[in-house]
Amino acid sequence: MDHKDKYKKGKPNVSKTKEKRRDEEVGLRKRRRDKFVDAKRLRLDSATFDDTEEHTKEQVIEVAKAIQKRGSAGRHDQLKQLKRMFAQGSALIDAFLGVDNALHALVGLLSGRDPTLQLEASWCITNLSASVHEHCMVVLQSAAPYLVTYLSGQNAALQDQCCWALGNLAGDGPECRDRLVDQGAVKPLINLLKF
User: Gene3D superfamilies this protein is in (predicted)?
Assistant: First the structure.
């Protein structure tokens, strides 16, 4: 082996250099796009910005149990609290989903007859669906048929919120997107865009 070969590099391989630069650019664009999408996925209201309190898993569990009780007073406030909790991240969502029948109760409020509770429940589901893939799959299985159904309803605020939740679910990846297409989400979305 020549002394020069040990310490000097030969001419750079142009194709490898181009490929490396292209891969770096693709990675940078993907990170920017992911950051942009993540910033848009959570649905926050003005009260969320005023709420500087950090919530705990215990508080989430307490609210999750409270929404399951029949005739529970203050459900509207509990749902508002839940949507703020879900906006704080996956750990609190894990705590909520760990409570038996909590998601079932939330979907029950979504499918109920009270329009204000339906709207708040759909907002909670929107923030749930902005989380990690596993959470999206659970929400997709439980709530997506109701979200798709409400796209054809008469409540414009609920339609908007359901669109937002479905957008979060579809944005999670091809698996979720394809399942939403199979559940018939495309036609009602197109009909909403026609207005």
Answer: Leucine-rich Repeat Variant
pLDDT of 80 over the 80 cut: yes
pLDDT at 63 over 80: yes
CA–CA distances in Å: residue 104 to residues 5, 70, 99, 100, 159 = 68, 13, 10, 9, 21
Dihedral, 129, 122, 140, 37 alpha carbons, nearest 10: -30
Lookup: tokens for 193: 């865009």
Cα distances from 125 to residues 20, 64, 68, in angstroms, run 41, 13, 16
Which residue type occupies 101?
N
Rounded to whole angstroms, the Cα distance separating 146 from 105 reads 14
What would the mean pLDDT of 144-148 be, rounded to a whole number? Answer: 96
Question: For residues 124 and 86, is the Cβ–Cβ distance under 8 A?
Answer: yes
Burial 141-180 (b: 16+ CB within 10 A, else e): ebbbebbbebbeeeeeebbebbbbbbbbbbbbeeebeebb
CB neighbour list of residue 25: distance below 8 Å, 6 or more residues apart: none
Q: Which residues lie closer than 8 Å to 132 by C-beta, 6 or more apart?
A: 90
Domains and CATH numbers, the chain: 47-194 (1.25.10.10)
* DSSP single-letter state for residue 101: T
